Amino acid sequence: MKNKFFCKDRWLGIALIVVSAFFAWQALILKKSNLAGDPGSGLFPLIGCGILFVCGILLFIKPGPDGKRMRMNAEEKKRFFIIIAIYIFAVLGAWLLGIMITLPVVLFIVSYLFSKSSRPEMPTGKRILTTLLYTVIVSVAIYFIYVVALQVTVRPGIWTKGLF
Question: Is residue 48 assigned to a domain?
């Protein structure tokens, strides 16, 4: 007889709590800032860990309606592997090409995929043009906010060191 108390949602809740505790511990041992009033580099990871911890508690307290294993259909599997490929490309692209080249490409791909699912009636050519325009505007805005206004140093990739 299966124990219905520990369904997949409760196991996921426990995993989220453990992972958030581990990352919070790691964030607490980061080097402290010497600047007065600066919260340090551990603030944002701690905020993320707090959100993850709350989600884990909620999943443990109130799991889904049943403990049945959900299976992905073919379309969901395709989307899952596309997202994983985008993550891999983003990490490898930032390392090899740098964030200045990788960010617009990833932004275009993700925006195009979202526009395809949210507005399926839109013609492909129009979808590509609007996504391209959106990508250019957002990429330029990110560049000006981070590089020009905040003067953040953006490291180039190992293949593009001479370009920037």
Answer: yes
